[in-house]
Structures are given as structure tokens and as C-alpha cells.
Amino acid sequence: MEQLCKNIYSFPVVLPNSPLKAIHIYVITGENGSYVLDTGYNMKESKESMIAGLKELGLQIKDVSLIVTHLHSDHSGLISDFYEEGCDIYTSDEDGKLLEITATGEYWNKSLDLITKYGIEEEFDVTDNPGYKYQLSSQFEYTALKEGDTIDIGEYCFEVLDLVGHTPGHIGLYERKHKILFCADTILNTITPNITFWGFEYKNMLERYLNTIHKLKKLDVDYCFSTHRDQVTDHKVRIDEITEHHFERLAEVFNSLEDGKEYTIRNIASNITWRIRANSWDDFPPAQKYFASGETMAHVELLVNYGYVNMREINGVLYFSKKKSNIDDIRDKINIQS
């Protein structure tokens, strides 16, 4: 347990079988109640960590309200446990709706379509996805939060931020007076957040993510609290590093394409570099193949949208080829609102 600021605490909840190892859970206490940000997986070990952390603060699950920053199972898996204890649940309407269809199984039908689009249907099954394995166990009722809403907790007044990018409805909290930012998975230190393709109904998520982090760069922040690995010490410097990473990745993806050839997402993803302990694409765990394919698709989609790459679909599989000879002008073209 660590006290970060007055009445703001953090403790880890373990994420077994995950490269992330743990999630930082934040608790904000006040005379008008206590709020927990995110949950961990829907599994015994995560729940025990949650109960133990709350106990150190003299709290039980039934004593708190829950804010879910986004739908990923390491952040939402225990929602049903909080809901069954009578807790108020808050999340964005966009991710809340996606969580509803996760609980009914409909969400995973969409994943089957993506697996086909990427060309990895023989290498990955939805049951390999930790989001499937450790998802919430039942539907729940929630209060939808949107950009500009405020939550008063003791001496703090937190503004809700729309942080679209890592998920379609990712939210954060900002306390202007005390310069505190809860950014969840939007800004991470030592690793870059996974920006994936969510389907063509969610257009150009990579560009939207870049605009989100550049919006955060304008904020006056003394404390930047993210949910994995080391804490962010200078959010502006880290945003610049993440932005540069994505420009380098766009160039790597584009340069992996040879003139006159067509590629599936699997072809591209297996020929670019990844920070993973595997000698080759064949050695990737199935879930990592899915995550790598989704991230590759997010970058390729941007290149398609800006006219650098052609795309066509044959029998449900997407194929890509070079349309231009280089992407030297891409930094000037991408519409980042600085």
C-alpha cells in the first residue's frame, strides 16, 4: 500500500499469466465516500489482492464505488463482484455498451471476424484471449460518464476526460487544482499502450489516440498515475516518446511492403519487430499474435486512410499493397491537434 497524495492510495492487484504481472489500483477516499479505479482479472488471485488492499484501508468491496476506466479485462474483470455487493459502477457509455455484449458473448463474435480479416484464423482462437478467459461473469448496471462530468471526492473535484484510443471509450480523471491525472492505460512508462483495430465502425483509432495524448500534453500535471509498470514522471516527455514510436512504427510497416506485392496483416505483423521473448512469429503465444495483428492493423488502416497503401477484401481476408513510393511527408499529413 502506498499513499500517493492526501487521501489517495495505490496497491497492486496481481494479474497471473500476464506479461503485465499486476495492475495499479487507486483508491480515493473522502467524507462523502471512497472510490476505486479499476479491478483486475475475474480470477481468484486478483480478487484476493483487491480484498487485501482494501482491507489495509479499513474498507470492503461493499463500502466503495467503482470507476472503470476502460473495458479490458484486467481493468473490468471483477465488476460483477462489485455490482453484486451493491456498489455504484461508473464507466463511459461506449465501453459500458461493449462490456454488456462481452458478458452476453456477442462481443466475441466480432473478434471472430477480426481473426479472419487478419489472416490468423488457423493460429488463434478467441478462447486464447485473456479478455475472454478473465472477463466479467455477468451483466451490470452502470452510470455513464462523459467528458466534462465532475466527481467530488473529499477535497478533490475530478473532471472526466475522454481518452479515446486504447479503447473506444477509455476515460480518465483530472484534478485541476491539485494537478493530478489518472490516465490508466493511455500513457504508460517503459511500454507503449496497445492501440488496436476495433472494426471499421471505429474509424482511425491510432490517429484519435495521438490526438488524445496531445490533448493531455496541454494539461498542467504534477502527478500522472497510470495503471501498469513504473509511474510516469514527466507526462509531456513520455507523450513525445510514444508519438515518435508510432511514427517509427508507421515507417517500419510501410517499408516492410515490397512494390507489386499484396500482404495480409499476418504477413506484415510477422515481418516487423516486437519486444517479446520469441525467436520468430511461430514462437509467439497465440494471444500475442492477436494483439500484434490488431496493432499492425491500426497502423495499416492509418496508411490506407492517408492514401499510402491500398486495401481490398477477398473472402473476408484483407490484403494490402503499396500505393506510394515513400511516406516522407506523413508527419505533416496526420491531423494531430497540437
Q: What's the topology here?
A:
Layout: E1 2-5, E2 8-14, E3 22-30, E4 33-37, H1 44-56, E5 64-67, H2 73-76, H3 79-84, E6 89-92, H4 93-104, H5 106-118, H6 130-133, E7 143-145, E8 150-153, E9 156-162, E10 171-175, E11 180-184, H7 205-217, E12 223-226, H8 235-255, H9 265-269, H10 286-305, E13 309-314, E14 317-322, H11 330-333
Parallel strand pairs: 4-5, 5-6, 6-7, 11-12
Antiparallel strand pairs: 1-2, 2-3, 3-4, 8-9, 9-10, 10-11, 13-14
Helix pairs in contact: 7-8, 8-10
Question: Can you describe this structure?
Answer:
This protein is α/β, with parallel strands linked by helices and 338 residues long. It has 2 domains: 2-242, Metallo-beta-lactamase, Chain A; 253-326, Arc Repressor Mutant, subunit A, CATH 1.10.10. The chain is 34% helix and 22% strand. It contains 11 helices and 14 strands. The protein has a 7-stranded mixed beta sheet. A hairpin with a 7-residue loop joins strand 2 and strand 3 (22-30). Helix 8 crosses helix 10. The protein is globular. It starts with a strand and ends in a 5-residue tail after the last helix. The relative contact order is 0.12. The model has no long low-confidence stretch (mean pLDDT 95).
